[in-house]
TrEMBL record:
GO terms for biological process: lipid A biosynthetic process. This is UDP-2,3-diacylglucosamine hydrolase. GO terms for molecular function: metal ion binding; UDP-2,3-diacylglucosamine hydrolase activity. Keywords: Cell inner membrane, Cell membrane, Hydrolase, Manganese, Membrane, Metal-binding. It comes from the Bacteria. The lineage of its organism: Bacteria, Pseudomonadati, Bacteroidota, Flavobacteriia, Flavobacteriales.
């Protein structure tokens, strides 16, 4: 298996964040959440060596040859600022922004991944993925993903006028209950959580210390066999949680004015 090794510098940390779904449920509401995420990135830039954006940064994203979706200027500008400071940015494409192409790579210098990746950091072994489509079940989504990633389907969508295409895409994206988190408020149990099942299967043949995913929205840290840990990063819709690794991994909540947005406790 291919693996990327990151040698952590003294005093530096690795940060993880996922499922911001910017653009939903509407631009005005989204901008409030975008401001919090920008503040968080501004805080971590002083000690971050690496930032992993683990998918669904946007509720919908599509790149035409000369056009990208309107908005997100300050978010993208802050990511570019971090990259210009020498912070490595790794972006995992999620199920809402799976039509990401080369914009972030060419304009900002991010490294974009479309599948799970293996990393070694601080002597620990990591498996990182957005998480969609992994493990058993969810056959309906897996069939839908095959359609969305089909080159012919993408070709037809690209020929729609961007105003029409974005209107259709945003409507369909926001109809998905994933943005509300309503389907992710309850822990289903180890035998039904598809990413936990997937992680346990991997442990049978590989040594992994940390499995880190987005997608599930419900923040959690669970110890698996052999002291491996399953981690879901939560989201920036209800929880505003993020991960940080230096000598070990911690799941934290970004502190903000509690009057500004609802806050829920992290499930550990």
């Amino acid at each position: 298996m291919l693996k990327t090794t990151i040698n952590l510098e003294p005093g530096k940390k690795v940060y993880f964040a996922s499922d911001q779904h910017f653009g939903a449920p509407d631009p005005k509401t989204s901008k409030v959440r975008e401001e919090h995420f920008i503040r968080w990135m501004d805080e971590i830039k002083h000690d971050a060596q690496v930032l992993f954006l683990m998918g669904d940064l946007f509720d919908f994203w599509h790149e035409w040859k000369h056009v990208i979706p309107k908005g997100y200027v300050r978010v993208l500008g802050k990511i570019a600022e971090l990259k210009d400071r020498g912070i490595h940015i790794y972006f995992f494409v999620g199920n809402h922004d799976l039509w990401m192409k080369d914009y972030l790579e060419e304009e900002i210098g991010c490294t974009v991944f479309y599948t799970k990746q293996y990393f070694e950091m601080g002597g620990k072994q990591f498996l990182l993925a957005h998480g969609d489509g992994l493990g058993p079940g969810d056959k309906g989504y897996k069939r839908m993903k095959k359609v969305f990633t089909n080159p012919v389907a993408q070709w037809f969508f690209r020929w729609l006028h961007p105003d029409i295409a974005m209107k259709i895409a945003l409507y369909m994206s926001q109809k998905n209950k994933m943005i509300s988190g309503d389907e992710d408020k309850e822990f289903l149990g180890e035998d039904k959580e598809f990413l936990i099942i997937y992680s346990k299967e991997k442990l049978r043949t590989q040594r992994i210390d940390y499995f880190i995913y987005g997608h599930r929205h419900l923040p959690m840290v669970m110890e698996l066999e052999g002291k491996a840990k399953y981690i879901n990063l939560g989201d920036w819709i209800s929880y505003f949680t993020y991960g940080v690794f230096e000598h070990d991994f911690q799941l934290k909540t970004f502190e903000m004015n509690k009057k500004e947005l609802p806050h829920k406790e992290v499930i550990l």
